[in-house]
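(Protein data)
===
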Amino acid sequence: ASADEISGADALIVGAPTWHTGADEQRSGTSWDDWLYDALPNLDLDGKKVAVFGCGDQESYSDYYYDAAGELYDKFVEKGCKVYGFTSTDGYNHADSKAVRDGKFIGLMCDEDNQYDMSEDRAKAWVDQLKSEGFF
C-alpha cells in the first residue's frame, strides 16, 4: 500500500511472522522490517486505529514467541496509534514474548504449527472483540 493509502485508512490491521529470533529490531525477516524503519517514521498516523496479529511456533521458539508482533506494536504506538484487540496469553505454551504488555498479547496470535485447530475460533473471537471495542 502507498503512504497515502495507509495515512488515509480509518484503521489498519497489520501482522508479521517472527523470523529473527532474539533480535532487538527487524524481527520479522520480511520487507516489513525495512518499511517499519524507513517508511513508517515519515507518516502522520497520530490517533490511527491499529490491530496487530502474528503467526509463529510457540513450541520450537518458546523464548521468542511473536516477538515481531511486539515490534509492530512498538513502532505504531511510537507514531501515536491506538492499538486494539489485546488477547489473553492463556492456552499458549511459551516462555517469553516481546508481544506481551500488561500480561496480554498485543493482538491475535496464531500458531499454525501446534494449534492450527484453534486459529479459526481465535480469529472469529478477535474480530468480534475488535467490533465491540469500536475498531470497525
In short: The radius of gyration is 14 Å. Residues 116-132 form the longest helix (17 residues).
